Amino acid sequence: MGKVAVMGAGSWGTAFALLCADAGQDVVLWARRSDVADAVDRDHRNPGYLPDVDLPPAVRATADPGRALDGADLVVLAVPSHALRASLADWRGDYPRAAVSVSLIKGIELDTRLRASEVVRDVLDLDPAAVVAVSGPNLAAEVAARLPGATVAAGADAATRAVQERCHTPAFRVYTNPDIVGVELGGAVKNAIALAAGMADGLGFGDNTKAMLVTRGLAEMTRLGLAFGGDALTFAGLAGMGDLVATCMSRRSRNRHVGEQLARGRRLEDVVAEMHMVAEGVTSSRALLDMARDRGVDLPIVEHVVKVVHEGADPAAMGGALMGRDPKPEFHGLDRAAGPVGRTA
């Protein structure tokens, strides 16, 4: 048993802390707000995010990042992508350099277009082999309820096996994969596709439409992943298709919810303001589109999501534009050679 510091007490950070405690770990959950930390310690509940979940006594909480990080040999990063760089800079003096760092973040940094693991390495100057990304169909409320589920820990072999050992439970399977590039890009792209799936729901489209968006979204995810050296097999797995299906189909999905509300005529600012959690696809969709254009990759669904979310386009017009595109072979753009499996750049 070792000490796990989970830095971020949102729904997924809290659920992941529960998993680690169930796996026999000593867990300290860092919360930005002291009232959240106090509630976890006093009542073993996080009322703002998972109010109906009883947390194990092994999950302790603090609003002091230095206390959370002190002595940790596994540091789990569960803050929004837009807050990651500044948070790491604040924690740099207390950060345990020998620890394995685990990113739960499914987003891309807008200005730099870096994946979360790259931001971690950039700010903290860590060995790439010590940084792991965890991604999969992991709706936090279901994980916290201990419903059967699974995820992928991606990165170097020793680090991913360490993560696997620390959060694998009878209700939660953890698989390893050396393709950190593909796993992180899969987690980011699926959020943008889920915005489109939500728009389809808001417009009253049917299951055929949703299935088309999921499948064509998988093609976009795979094209972008291959262009950056990912492994095509990754996108057929939990961190690709698995996460895409869960996020596009579930009523619990925050990105799907945002898309649905936009299609019903609500303003983005109003939808986001009433949410307690971040919909990563709102910000990351722009960075993903820029990345695709740099590599000459066609992402029509992501492109039209950006037009609706950031340029004020009509969701109904988006549907017509996508359906009116010139027909192509089904696997157009998927003939790129994948990069070496296991690269961590």
Short description:
The chain has helices at 11-22, 34-43, 65-69, 81-91, 116-124, 140-144, 157-167, 180-202, 207-227, 238-249, 254-263, 268-273, 280-295, 300-311, 315-323, and strands at 3-7, 26-30, 59-62, 74-77, 100-103, 131-135, 149-154, 172-177. It is α/β, with parallel strands linked by helices and 345 residues long.
Which SSEs are present, and which pair or pack?
Layout: E1 3-7, H1 11-22, E2 26-30, H2 34-43, E3 59-62, H3 65-69, E4 74-77, H4 81-91, E5 100-103, H5 116-124, E6 131-135, H6 140-144, E7 149-154, H7 157-167, E8 172-177, H8 180-202, H9 207-227, H10 238-249, H11 254-263, H12 268-273, H13 280-295, H14 300-311, H15 315-323
What does this structure look like?
This protein has helices at 11-22, 34-43, 65-69, 81-91, 116-124, 140-144, 157-167, 180-202, 207-227, 238-249, 254-263, 268-273, 280-295, 300-311, 315-323; strands spanning 3-7, 26-30, 59-62, 74-77, 100-103, 131-135, 149-154, 172-177. Strand 1 (3-7), helix 1 and strand 2 (26-30) form a beta-alpha-beta unit. It is α/β, with parallel strands linked by helices and 345 residues long. Strands 3-2-1-4-5-6-7-8 form an eight-stranded mixed beta sheet, with helices on both faces. The protein has two domains: 3-178, NAD(P)-binding Rossmann-like Domain (Rossmann fold, 3-Layer(aba) Sandwich); 181-323, Orthogonal Bundle (N-(1-d-carboxylethyl)-l-norvaline Dehydrogenase, domain 2). It has 15 helices and eight strands.
